[in-house]
């Protein structure tokens, strides 16, 4: 069976990947507004969130 994929499938996959990265940056930005104790309680570190990217939330 061929692993060849169509143009629209590739375009949709690229769109979904870009949207997931955008959402991840948004969520990381929201999490960075929490205090260190709360982040630690949920398994995050401030450095990890910054390293993974964050966008400013208005």
How would you describe this protein?
The protein has 58 residues and is mainly alpha-helical. It is 64% helix and 0% strand. It has helices at 7-31, 36-41, 46-51. The termini are far apart. The model has no long low-confidence stretch (mean pLDDT 89).
Mean pLDDT, to the nearest integer, reads 89
- Estimate nothing, just give the exact number of structural domains: 1
Overall 3D shape = elongated
Number of contiguous helices = 3
Span of the ends, CA to CA: 49 Å
Structure summary, number of beta strands: 0
* Secondary structure category: mainly alpha
Largest sheet: none
The arrangement of helices and strands along the chain is HHH
Uncertain residue ranges:
none
| Rg of Cα set | 16 Å
- The percent of residues in helical segments reads 55-70%
Query: What amount of the residues lies in strands?
Result: under 5%
Provide a concise account of the structure shown:
This protein is mainly alpha-helical and 58 residues long. The protein is 64% helix and 0% strand.
């Amino acid at each position: 069976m061929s692993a060849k994929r169509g143009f629209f499938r590739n375009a949709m996959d690229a769109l979904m990947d870009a949207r997931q990265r955008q959402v991840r940056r948004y969520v990381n930005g929201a999490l960075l507004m929490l205090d260190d104790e709360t982040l630690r309680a949920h398994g995050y570190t401030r450095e990890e969130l910054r390293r993974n990217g964050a966008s400013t939330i208005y």
